[in-house]
Amino acid sequence: RRYTLVAIMFMALLDDPAEEPRFTQMCEHYKNYIYTICFSRLHDEHLAEDCTWMTFEQAAKQFHKFDGDILSNRVRNLLCTIAVAKCSREWRKQKRFYEVGEKLSEQKDGTAREPSTEDVLWNRWQLEELKSAIDQLPEHYKVSLFLAKIYGFSAKEIAEICDVTPETARKRVSLAMKEVRNILEGEQIGDEE
Predict the structure, then answer these.
(1) What count of other Cβ atoms lies within 10 Å of the Cβ of residue 111?
(2) In the chain, which residue ranges form alpha helices assigned H by DSSP?
């Protein structure tokens, strides 16, 4: 019943309102399958449910790409791929939250040493140097680097966002990292792409 309500929420994302019955049928048919995939990866009921909803939301946005037979193996595999990507992104996000929480609790417990003034200044200077180096990058490198290293997107996700191939996305991130390193070391490389 809850997934039927979710299906209704995502109806507005469909390009063709006539597709609503097929979309609802797909949600009903695959809801347990997708939830099981998400739960097996995340081991948390709430996160698995959220990722299941996000999978159907993404499916609604791309429903025009789905076969006429929504019970086909191709559709099942497509939903599975979307679910695995959503779970991976959620897992990375949860891992970051956990790491930050650990650092905060260490500082709160007093187990981590208080940074000295020199440490604070050194870290601030390094951060400014890094920001300056990233600002010097060509825009397509800068965007790819931020998507990969700050937001944790995969090469495939970056490729979709930037409308390039996954190999080009990987190359941009790699070259951006190399160029930042060279800038920080005092040598600038040219645009190799």
Answers:
(1) 8
(2) 2-9, 20-42, 45-61, 73-109, 117-135, 139-145, 155-162, 166-185
Contacts of residue 116, Cβ cutoff 8 Å, sequence gap at least 6: none
Q: Which pair of structure tokens corresponds to residue 113?
A: 């040493």
Q: Which two tokens stand for residue 130?
A: 């890094």
Q: Please write the tens of the pLDDT for every residue from 1-31.
A: 455 555 566 666 776 777 788 888 888 889 8
Half-sphere exposure of 138 (CA within 13 A, CB side): 14
Q: What is the CA radius of gyration of the chain?
A: 22
d(CA 87, CA 47): 8
| DSSP state, residue 136 | T
The DSSP H or E segment spanning 49 is: helix 45-61
Model confidence at 191: pLDDT above 50: no
Residues 101, 103, 106, 107, CA torsion sign: negative
Helix 155-162 with 73-109: angle, nearest 10 deg: 110
